[in-house]
Amino acid sequence: MLRRKKIGYILPTILIAFCASLQLRTMVQLLFRFDDEKDVLSHLPPNPSDITNITIFSRKKATLEASAHESILHVFQYGVPLTASATQFHMVCVSLFLHVRIYHSALMNSTICSLGRPATGEEAKVKFHKDVPQAFKSHAHKPDPTHFEKSTVIFTTHFTKAEAAKQKADLRNQGFNVGIVHDADTMNEIGISGMVKQYADFFSLGHDYIDLMTEYFQQWHRLRECCGMQMSTYFRNELLPASDKVNGTKPHDYCGSLDINILEAQFMNMVLYKLLNDYPFMKKINRPSIVDGDLNGSYCSRYNDAVRKHGNTGNKDHEYLGLNSMYAEVENNWKERHENFFDTLKKKSAHNLPRADTHDERLQWSIENSPLQPPFSPWVQDYISFHQSSIVDGNLSENAQYIVYECKNGKISCGGAGDRMIGMIKMFYLALCTRRVLIIDAPFPIPLTDVFIPAQIEWNATFPVTLDYFDDMDYFIDFGLREDIRGYRVPRTNDAPRKKSLDEIWESSLMADHLRKGGWSEEAKKVSVANIAREAYRAMFQFHRAVISRASDLKAAAGISGPYVGMHMRKGDQNMGVSPAGPKFVKRETHDDEMLHCYSQLMASHPNEFKMAYLASDDVLTKQRIASKDSSIHFAQLNPFHIDKSTRESRAVDPATVYSGVLDTWAEMLVMAESTCLIISKSMFAFSSLHMRDPRACAVPLNFCNDPDHRKGDKEYFGENIAEREFVLRWDKS
């Protein structure tokens, strides 16, 4: 089902041209094919050394494609109450920030979104500072035309299409530069995704930013409905004490069934949230509403609990909600920065402002390596919908068939972090083609929910206990629909005897039947194994905030700042099954000279892009030895811990040690996934990191780096499963 291109026929031609060029550089730029090779290449700059253009949206490309709206710095927004005016302001604010990022990057640190003060009567006469990008929200019913330059863009909202059209005409007649005038009717018709497209088009942001913003605002809208000062009236009524409830009102469509902490954590884990949160004058826009406090992982649950306890007084004063101290601290901190910022303006021009401590170099690269992905394939989206419809209030619905990935008690080997991740990805596709709800029952050695939270599917739902099990992952056992069995367990997805690989599940007759029934067969022929794995990961998982925080700690402890290369050195003497056409096992150990040679090539070819590397390994001495040979290679001092062996083979391990060891393991995988360029060694740990990354991010297989003609090395593994199916090979010639 996958297109196979015999790389052996292609590479000699490439090598002839390669050798004919006397001025060459030895870097290999490899990118995953997520749709088609041409699609990937279209995202690349002419010269890979210009890696700053491999971003969510190239500034050069943006300039070519942009409309007339390329110099927007000042925005005034207002609207009639109850017309989604706050939603418009949030979209305008975020759009302005991204617009500045593309066209006026020197002004990113000074971009600000602010609210007027209705009591002063001066908000309609707001003065914008030159060269300070600003979005201002007013509660006035219209701006004062005597206080605005023609470059200031006006955005507003109204109830109906007719009223909006009249408002737009009136504003233009008064000489205003009018942006978008939205009405409540149209916003209900086009939804969040339609609104995002209009604002992205107006601010000339491009298609990649549309995907990023749509994901962000859909989650923000859900959070805003269910949390904070401006939450849904219906849901607030549900939360109120009985004495305050308004009888006869309908319940909210979904807020009552959500785990608000999970929703808050998922929102905080989004790429755009993280980007905005690192800019002191923009982070306020990440709140459910600007009058709320900053999110911290439990803000919403604390707020909602306070509403249950104190009732409607929360609409008037945070003090009655028990949030006054936190809220005041957040507000005062923001106001202090706000005031200091404008004090500085009196002394220096905006262009000469001291840079805030926002890790701009890191942010420039983090967004390139973010989990921004293309839309799900139709078969994955179909399965997500099926799975979601089969879970009701956290429980598997009656009669729904299910399949269980389990890692229960250590009696059966589940493998290390990489083996487990690949195993769960394989189970996702087994569940997909058998039309079963995937359940993950993995409390060993700590609950999986301590390191991952569900993304699109609720894999941790409650399910009926079943004693049925089938070794569906064993290579020599056929799997089928098993229509007479409601639910069963798959006891092992890794280790001996040989297990089915992901591509073997994808190419199975059962999967072919499923894709044919859905009308997806032709489209499925175009995908790569990498994209198959990546989509399953995205559908299932987001890292728990504890892992995200620990990954940041590890990078800080290792001295990582700015762009870095991720490397994994496996020194354990474990084996990995490969195709029965080749040798049964190959060693996964990585040799020092292989890794150092590949890294030196990468650094020599791109001296301006990479300044350092982060080395992950299951061996402390390996880290120390490699780092001693190259001072630009950094590592975090961690005690060796294997999430399977360290607990299964030694049951007396202290629980605190187990938790910290598991957390460190997954955090190092996240550090690898967040790297600017990833060197892929022969380990499932490295491959799992790969599947968490943007499909366009730099990735270099170790064997390709050391053996570019691919005549040696692990052909059975890299040749069949990686090179021919998943990578686009590009030689960087100068």
Detailed description of the structure:
By secondary structure, the protein is of the alpha/beta class. The protein has 3 domains: 293 residues, no CATH class; 166 residues, no CATH class; 189 residues, 3-Layer(aba) Sandwich (Rossmann fold), CATH 3.40.50. Helix content is 42%, strand content 13%. It is built from 27 helices and 21 strands. A 5-stranded parallel β-sheet has the order 3-4-2-5-6, sandwiched between helices. Strands 18-17-14-19-20 form a 5-stranded parallel β-sheet, sandwiched between helices. Strands 10-9-12 form a 3-stranded parallel β-sheet, covered by helices on one side. Helix 4 runs antiparallel to helix 7, helix 15 crosses helix 19 and helix 20 crosses helix 24. The longest helix is centred in the middle third of the chain and has 24 residues. The chain is globular and about 75 Å long. The N terminus and C terminus are likely disordered.
Q: What would a concise description of this structure say?
A:
This is O-fucosyltransferase family protein. The protein is an alpha/beta fold and 734 residues long. Helix content is 42%, strand content 13%.
Helix content: 40-55%
Distance between the termini: 37 Å
Integer-rounded radius of gyration = 27 Å
Binned strand content: 5-15%
Give the averaged pLDDT, no decimals.
75
Give the beta-strand count.
Answer: 21
Q: Provide the domain count.
A: 3
Decide which structural class fits the backbone.
Answer: alpha/beta
User: How can the largest sheet be summarized?
Assistant: 5 strands, parallel
Which outline best applies?
globular
Low-pLDDT sequence parts: 1-68, 314-373, 573-586, 710-734
| Annotation field: number of helices | 27
Keywords: Membrane, Transmembrane, Transmembrane helix
Transmembrane segments: 7-24
Organism: Cyclotella cryptica
Protein name: O-fucosyltransferase family protein
